[in-house]
Amino acid sequence: VQEEKIFAGKVLRLHVCTMEGAEWLEEVPEDTTVEKLKERCLKHCLPGSLEDPKTVTHHKLIHATSEKVLTDTKTVLEENIQDRDVLLLVKKRAPTLLPKMSDVVAEEKRKQEQKAPDKDAILKATANLPARSADRSVTHHNMRDFQTELRKILVSLIEVAQKLLALNPDAVELFKKANAMLDEDEEDRVDEIALRQLTEMGFPESRAVKALRLNHMSVTQAMEWLIEHADDPSVDAPLPGAAPAEAPAEAPAEGAASSAEAAAGPSSEEGGEEAKDELTEIFKKIRRKREFRPDPRAVIALMEMGFDEKEVVDALRVNNNQQNAACEWLLGDRKPSPEDLDKGIDTNSPLFQAILENPVVQLGLTNPKTLLAFEDMLENPLNSTQWMNDPETGPVMLQISRIFQTLNRT
């Protein structure tokens, strides 16, 4: 008996598979190297093709259970392969070819060509152009004109909405609905999300409501106010004018009743005109009920600069309670004037005609809630977000904004 056979290792029977579906049984001693086992497998499935030495190195054996790639220099025993284990013979993927130097240079050149010019290149290219300096005051003035134009649009649309509601056979009922919404107590119109944020910080609910109303529903400003007035004895005192909210609400109700009588009266043209005129007057009364509320802190800050209280209130009203803009208005030409805020847009202008011809706007103008939104945004521009998110008034505001932006770009 030969010595190598006496001391030979244990023979293992291994199942070998290929990606093409071939399958066979290989019997090898456990001290056989993986490279030798791979050669035997290749001879079995690729007879006569092992003349190329790269054939062996271009294949690998994988242990099916552990999904481990077997190392060529290790033995079957060292790779912990057991009897009846399944091995997979796979051809290695071709290595990724390194790009040619010419291709690398061409790609780098392309990137450089697409790269934005630096400051020196811009100055060199624009050296012969006439110098122009942008006037910041002009830019700010244009921004103010933009806001003023939007106000004019709202003023004119309110007039159109009033006329449409007056012409409606159910004008009185529609008015009652709008009047009920307009008479809602301001205490009930607090942003619930903002209130929850403040109460979760530990502030009392009544105090948080007061802070939000004083700061136009701004959580950040309300929080600052609460911290500043934490030790103020009058911090929980109700806001002035909050209690007697029911008295003025009765007058329009009487107007509604009188308009109802007018609508129920004679159907002649004279009676109809009287009803419409009366309804228009009632809408004017409703609008007067919505007084502008200046930011108390902005009023104090601007008055400390030496400005009169009435001037400060006018400045804040013109500039939507923006303290810095109000200060520039007071120091500048004071345009637009507070009286300009009540002027509407030219009804024959292409902008207003385009807005009125929009079907979404036309439908929205017959909704009393749209009238409420327009009135509220005129006096409280910061409330525009809630109306933009409202399912009834949001689409109308979106169309007006799109038409405005489109025509101002042309």
UniProtKB/TrEMBL annotation:
GO cellular component, one term: cytoplasm
Biological process (GO), any one: protein ubiquitination
Domain of life: Eukaryota
Annotated localization: Cytoplasm
Gene3D superfamilies the record matches: 1.10.260.100, DNA helicase RuvA subunit, C-terminal domain (1.10.8.10), Phosphatidylinositol 3-kinase Catalytic Subunit, Chain A, domain 1 (3.10.20.90)
Pfam families to which the protein is assigned, alphabetical: UBA_7, UBL_UBAC1
PROSITE patterns the record matches: UBA (PS50030)
UniProt-recorded name of the protein: Ubiquitin-associated domain-containing protein 1
The species this protein was found in: Melospiza melodia
Gene designation per UniProt: Ubac1
